[in-house]
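Hi V.,

You were right to ask for the full record rather than a summary. Here it is.
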Amino acid sequence: MIIIDGENLSPENVMAVARDLEEVRLSGEALLKVRKSRKALMDLVDSGQKIYGVNTGFGSLLNVAIKNEDMVRLQSNLIRSHASGFGERLSDIHVRAMMLVRANSLCKGYSGVRPELIDMLIFMLNRRIHPVVPRFGSVGASGDLAPLAHVALAMTGEGFVVSGKGTRNSGEALAEAGIEPFSFREKEGVAFINGTSAISGILTVEFVRSQEMFQDALSSAALSFEGLRGTDKAFTSWAVESRGHPGQKLVAKIFRETLDGSKNIKTASIGKIQDPYTLRCIPQVYGAVLDTMEYARRVITVEINSVTDNPLINGEEYVSVGNFHGEPVAFISDFMAIALTDLGNMIERRLARMTDSSLSGLPAFLIKNSGFNSGYMIPQYTAAALCNRNKVLCTPSSADSIPTSANQEDHVSMGTNAAIKLIEVNDNLEGIVAIEYLLASQAIEFIGDPISGKCRMLHKTIRKTVPELLEDRPPSIDIEKIVELMRTGILRKEAGKFFKD
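Predicted structure:
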């Protein structure tokens, strides 16, 4: 059970709900804050003050007055008109993350919504009723209007959802679940869709995925290091720590521990001066990726516990503010894509080295009787193709801005597109890491001296699923098997936990 209070949601909590289907509950303290905020809003409305999105139009229509009798209908019109997304739908995991982050933001008590709105989101999460949300439509400022409007539309029974019986009309699914469609009242529509929860939800899921993959990438790199018979001299603690980056120091420490006891490395180190960069500079490059991820964690944690709608209510005061602008998480989405792309680049260069007998000292393409067998020639091509794709995807979305709403919204973050790109960057990196596991395991078959205990456990676990390549077979099947091992976390468990809680 994940209890939300607007203050303490972690990326791991989001993933527990989004992927692992943990149930959600609103804290009692948050409930009191939400009720207080709602009363403050209604007192302001009753006083006759003009409040954006409550008794005015939206965007560049902010100076259009709305009659009191039309305020509720205004919210319905807002949701219908803004549900204008396009393209392939987001996965249920990403939609669940969006919903949880939105609920957590609203329960901080500055948005003027009723508790029933948050209860509806929680009900749908707990009953696994997932709105259909098209992938594209948000520019990442004034909130994730289109994606969140599709969530809201499903809450009203007008949109579509994915539930136990597949994709169907939301009204039917809600009726079957025994709950009435939700009716958005004063300010609730604009409070719901005017926030960064699509960017933040997607980014949070992909952050946790990348953290898990980073652990696998450390393990696959260690196997490659054994297969290419590197020297661990470059990981000497005093030398590494002479440069103060924490990620670099941690990665070097992990490699010292992972390679500890390797007779293979000890023998290879005799008389060797230094290795090529893809071996020697693993702490420097992987450490920089790790430091980037730690910075991302800090930004994400702040964002998923923030109020991001507009206007905000605090007692008798209300303020039109720009918390809905997605730039903080837009930058992080792009920064993560760049870092993870370069991680894949380094892996691919090790793959090329392992398959080139003139560089590796191993049989050509890691198979005996090469020529008659092509061995693992083509998986390196696949990794190269995936790296190329990621290089295109890591072009920053946040470097662009296209004004919207008749220039009222004259600078936007494009953060949602940045987060969406990160999904594919992670998908592609998953394949690259799996290929390194596959080829490094094969390289180790040709090593005479014993490898380290941890690497031996990793190699043994992979061999339980993917046998040694003795003659040509389709590598695609083996790659998919290793991807499944990565997703289940078996290889991470064998390697030990690299990250502190």
